Amino acid sequence: MDCNLKIYLVSSTDSPEFTSLTRFLTRSPIVAFDAEWKPLRSPSSSFPTVTLLQVACRLGHDSDDDSAVFLIDLTLIPLPSVWELLRDAFVSPDVLKLGFRFKQDLIYLSSTFTQRGCESGFHEVKPYLDITSIYNHLQHKRIGRQAPKDIRSLAAICKEVLGVSLSKELQCSDWSLRPLTEAQKLYAATDAHCLLQIFAVFKAKLVEDGITELDSSDLNVGLREILEISNHGNTIVTVKICKALDVIRATSESCQSLANGVVSRKSIRNTMPMDEILLKIVRRYGERILLKESDLRPKNSKRKARRRVASNTVDRDKQLSCCGDWQGPPPWDASLGGDGCPKFLLDVMVEGLAKHLRCVGIDAAVPHSKKPEPRELLDQAYRENRVLLTRDAKLSRHQYLGKNQIYRVKSLLKNEQLLEVIETFQLKIKEDQLMSRCTKCNGKFIQKPLTIEEAIEAAKGFQRIPNCLFNKNLEFWQCMNCHQLYWEGTQYHNAVQKFMEVCKLNE
Ligand SMILES: [Zn+2]
Q1: How many structural domains compose the chain?
Q2: What is the Å distance from ligand 1's center to 486 Cα?
Q3: Domain that includes residue 420, residue range
Q4: How far away, in angstroms, is 491 Cα from ligand 1 center?
Q5: Are residues 294 and 339 in the same domain?
Q6: pLDDT, tens digit, for every residue of 54-89?
Q7: pLDDT digit string (tens) for 317-353?
Q8: Distance (Å, rounded) from C-alpha 417 to C-alpha 368?
Q9: Which end of the chain is more exposed for a tag (fewer CB within 10 A), N or C?
Q10: Do residues 293 and 345 both lie within one domain?
Q11: At 420, phi and psi to the nearest 5?
Q12: Residue 319 CA: distances (Å) to CA of 151, 219, 330, 362
């Protein structure tokens, strides 16, 4: 994380920090919010009290020099004195709000403000963009369809998108104790600041993909490899340039209330106008958090009252205990936009199974490299919409893939493994599928069988065709991919017989 990050602790209204906060909050077109609270120990009829609100602001450009993080100490500052400032920022159409599952934070924040002298809490945040949505959009881009919406922690997203590890040590520290330690301050600030950085990557990606014609030289381009390899599909629709709308927007600053039906804002707000790209992003992806009455009533539930880290831990434990269990639908399912053709990726530990699957006509790929990192395997499965088959328990615990995209094979013997996969994924194997795929490389055969003459020609300098085949009237198949020739010999018939039995096609 950036060591030059400007962090201000705001604990009173008559401080230079508060002046700075006001200045940034009323001028920044992008603001990221995060909150810390002390978890409740037992089921409770109230919400936890938010003790710290982190506000990361970025003025015009996507540069860290232009950003600052304010840690508003809600245990010290009189809440009514910051309520309006925050409320205005939450609903200002000129400020894009970023958060990580901020609805929960907003509920607790609302409750904290009403309990501590404010007439009303906060009911609405818009335009808003959740980091989870951003992540899903980036994923959608990568794999050409909606990624499974599994629960990913902010730390995992940071690691993946920014390549930085957030330390989670302090997440459960006591946020009600004062003074906060330096480490706590840095942790809290980083949690909010990284939201700005993830957004900058997203924005740069959209620019790169042509969401706008604007010069991107002022953008913070520094995408990780994972985003760079993603460029197939171009599924993000280029947003039409709405110049006319922008002009209307720019010239109607002063009468925005008429144009948008928004309650007229205080004159202190002097937000730098959103640039064209930001406007487009807000129009295309902007969300809204709206709290209902029922959201603001605490549910007497232990799980709900816990801090989100705690609930993440629970999810994780659950995942560990049932790892390897298959949860569909598979990525090739029509409901997920797939073509209905099962596709697998097999790691080194089940390489033999790959050949068996190919023998029964199933698309079974192996990793591109000899000794792939777990990461590469997971990426390949994701990119190619395959289910990763492995015997590696550690790999199957990976949260990176949805549970419908990884399966831990339990049987040890190849034939049993084949049957296990067929049954688990309810694969329908027909007789004409047997031996219909190159066992060497997983390629498909050229549609039309070759005659012996054609086969000899095709095999020249590459594969020897035994003389004993010459006088038999055999058909040959050639792999479209690696050009290997196959023929209907004894081996072939034995194999067909064997897989008829393994797949129980005779019964
Ligand atoms: Zn082949």
Answers
A1: 2
A2: 10
A3: 321-502
A4: 17
A5: no
A6: 999 998 766 667 889 999 999 999 999 999 999 999
A7: 333 333 446 777 888 988 888 888 999 999 988 989 9
A8: 22
A9: C
A10: no
A11: -60, -45
A12: 11, 39, 18, 28
